[in-house]
Amino acid sequence: MRIGIIGAGLSGLATSFYLSRLLTGSRLVVFEAEQHPGGTLQTVEIDGFRFETGANGFLTSKPDCLQLVRDAGLEDRLLRSASAARRRFIYTDRLHPLPESPALLLKSELLTWREKLRVAGELFVRPRRDSGEESLRQFGDRRLGPAFTRVFLDAMAAGIHGSTPDRLSVQAAFPMIAQLEREHGGLLRGMIARRAASRPGDGLVSLSDGIGTLAQRLVELTPADWRFGDPVRSVERQGAGFHIVGHRSTAEVDQVVVCAPAFAAAGILVELDAELGMQLARIEYTPIAVVGVGYHSCPVKVDGFGLLTTSASQVPILGVTWDSSIFPQRAPPGGCSLRVMIGGQRAPELVALDERGLIETARAGLRTTMQLDREPDVTFVQRWPRGIPAYSPGHLAVVDAIFARAGRIPGLHLNCNAYRGVAMNDCARESRELALRIATRQ
Fold first, then answer.
1. What are the tens digits of pLDDT across the range 251-303?
2. Cβ contacts of residue 345 below 8 Å, gap of 6+?
3. Best exposed site among 109, 158, 217, 244 by fewest CB in 10 Å?
4. pLDDT tens-digit profile of 37-76?
5. How many angstroms separate the CA atoms of 74 and 100, rounded?
6. Number of Cα atoms under 13 Å in the Cβ half of residue 227
7. How far apart are CA 163 and CA 391, in angstroms?
8. pTM for the whole thing?
9. What is the β-pairing status of strands 232-238 and 88-91?
């Protein structure tokens, strides 16, 4: 069995890894456009500071990525976030602690008493019976009131998806929220039930040398013909199999797994199936820029996970993660490191700024939100013009159509974070399950 995998981000790496374990006699060839594996999961070290280009880690409330780390023999390098990481903040006109419980919400100054009563009234809002998709804004306004949407859901949309509540499908982007309403009749009832069932110790984890370590280890453990720096131009039918045409090489395979981003997959597959290519091109992406700043001596107290801003605050940043507070190993002793998120659906044009412009935008955001005005000792910039798949309203219908169309082509498989979850846990789960389906059909 010859299997081609296109793309060596987390989805492509995990798929290759599990296929090599499940189909020991198979021959894998992996094409990757970049010269390195991991996609957005890279760790960059500068003068003793470690900056992540993408995700800072993954949550252990779901088992999938933790299992992948264990399967890769990296459990001894797991790095649990500091207890301070539980503290999060929202910036409106100033920093407010994010309430962690209904009691703290009552004390919070983020909402007026009238707005808090509207949130409490969610207990009496009947669950929606329509099974169609709705935006996060429609969901929030309907169940919790416009004020809650304007503050909490707006900040959450920016922090997780770099987006806004009106541009996200709640069923696609936050399926757990929709599930709470479906199974418990409401969000507050569901959160109470979920809190009672939560396990102690769940939280954010990373790896001691950075999350990029996972990508390198998966390559080391997976016997494959790795073709880095060889972007795929097209996939063509060849008998019962496929002919993969790369920029520098080709391959004949029995099955092909396209793990490239949807916009890249669209161009790769358009000759194989023009309709499939057009459907894939319908998935939009959100631009995002990450600016890291490091200080050898910490100019302000950073004690928590970080902060998110709201659209109404009109701050030129989406949020700040206090990386060295979450994982102290990310900065040299006595120092601190922060990462500033810029752009997203609020201000996509900012991502096109040059490096100096992005650094100045980040510093302006830090001055406003944290009163931090000292020039950093170290800076790092990563620009992702198409960084996060945009799970806009109607996304699930688009994905269903894509997979129905791809299902007509025996041996073709699609797998990346553009379809059914953007988080590392989602990628690990989808990759393991796909590898198992391919293996059991042989």
1. 999 999 999 999 999 999 999 999 999 999 999 999 999 999 999 999 999 99
2. 162, 163, 164, 167, 286, 390
3. 109
4. 999 999 999 999 999 999 999 999 999 999 999 999 999 9
5. 32
6. 21
7. 9
8. 0.94
9. unpaired
